[in-house]
Amino acid sequence: MFLTRALHFVLIQSVCIYKCQARCESYSWTQWTLCVDNLQEYRVREVQDVDACTGGLPPCNVSSAEYRVYQCSIPQTDVDVTIQTIRSEILSIEPNVTAVAVHVSRGSATDRLSMSKYYQAAYGSNLLQDLSEAFPIIATDCWASLIGGTTDHVTKSLKRSILLEESDRASTLLITNGNEEIQRIQQQYKLDTGESLDQALVQRFSGDEENVLRSLASAQRNENGVVKAENVESDTYNLRQAVFSSDVSELLRLLGAQDKTHLNDVFNQYKITYGRWIQYHIKRKIVGNVQASFLNIADYITDEAKFCAVKLFFALGLATDTTLDEEAVETTLVDCAKVNLCQTVLKYREIYNRNLADDIEAHYHGTCAQLLVPLANMEEEM
Q1: Domain edge (last residue) among 71, 91, 126
Q2: Which residue among 83, 147, 236, 241 is least enclosed by CB atoms within 10 Å?
């Protein structure tokens, strides 16, 4: 049962006063306390350095405490156990990068941001800094992309894709992130470039291509997770009509804004009803650069692990007429960690009959190699 903040402070003060009154000598007393409840998360540090017998400030006076308050985002989860495991590994004589990578990469980007904040609250130090010191061979940016919810990494890649007007790459980066993550990307993009993400898309893309990317970058997708059979049936029919009439606006309404769980059911129903996956008809009925963006949406929602595996294969330059793109390897693998990296590794082997870790080790030589290889071995660690 969680304590209220006020009661928690009273208990701390009572213990503190008791400890101070128990002896008459000059000393320092410090206590760190972490409290997490459904409303707030906060950490309390009380430090007292006085002579308990000769006066001065009252022993362990609460007014001398240092309070740090954090907005609660991780109520009643096992994140504390994960953080304890990571902390234990960091402090060990020979920290194991694979063990840390497995734990750090678990959960969504939001979960990983919460872990980073919880670590700060629990131990009074920065997780990124501690990881960088424990594993100096791995570039700090690599850890930052993993524990930072991929925001910095995705924003960097997105800036490059927009500058080069690569709508396929831009849509890949956007579809793999939820509304909350997109909002963080919007903020980071504005901070880095001085212009909004939406403005950048308007300036460098046009027509249907622009509309699709702006929709994906709007952070307005329905995420209620509610699926109703009657809506699945009607949207399946509407999707069929939109594809066969090449109605990009209607396709965008369906694919760009609907809940992903709902769309997955729609795609499955489409296959049952019409005998083909939606991708088959998109390739034949939708033309221009916008086709790639719609295929990215459909591929990711249909099978996230397969989507990630295919993107990694292409990023490694192993597909016909492709070359190694180290940035895409880094971004895709880190981004897929929030999907289910174990499933991605298995899917990669299933599709290509190859080992992802071996391919990364053989073809990728960037600064994140020491982190990416353990991540690609995820199936053996979980």
Answers
A1: 71
A2: 241
